[in-house]
Amino acid sequence: MSAVLFGSIGTLAETSEIQREAFNDAFRAHGLDWHWERADYLAMLRESGGRDRIAGYAAQQGTEVDADAVHRSKSQAFQKLLATSGLTPRPGVVDTIAAARDAGVKVGLVTTTSRENIDALLDVLGPDVRRADFDVVVDTSEVSAPKPDAAAYVHALDALGERAGDCVAIEDNGDGVTAAAAAGVPCVAFPGANTADHGFSDARSVVDRLDPADLLPGR
């Protein structure tokens, strides 16, 4: 095993409900009478891409919106909410990163979210999880297509100089698992509270906490 690749900020901390709250804050800021309940949002999470969720929902409602502008407001709201969230790392994350570093195994964060969202989360999780813990951090500005496309993983593997089969990915949603599989990276599904019902047939296993002994066999 040469690298452990965390596939989204949701693999590091439970951010999904904060994301939903940020969407609703953005809708209010733009004068939209929309409110996504948790049940609505669970269905939307089967496909990646916040901007596309907004555009798709607007089309369903027969409403014209500037999806890019609403999504920018959502990202700003998300970052503000994170700052006061008191979030902590998900079970096993800190131990997995520490074990990988101790064993000389590279660690990556392979997302298709913005650099600002990543920085905001790591500010909250520090010092338990820090930017310096990662040998590569991939954000949306560095990839040609969002997940389930393999582009983010291809970019990370190139940056690390590692072969897909020598790495393991950790993903919390179905599109992420599909992206890892498309890049040839074995994947462990680590679903969050809002993604537990996603399909994970391409994952080698589904876990509710990370175990360094499983992710780093023989280390």
UniProtKB/TrEMBL annotation:
The keyword Hydrolase applies. It comes from the Bacteria. The keyword Hydrolase applies. Keywords: Hydrolase. One of its GO terms (molecular function) is hydrolase activity. This is HAD-IA family hydrolase.
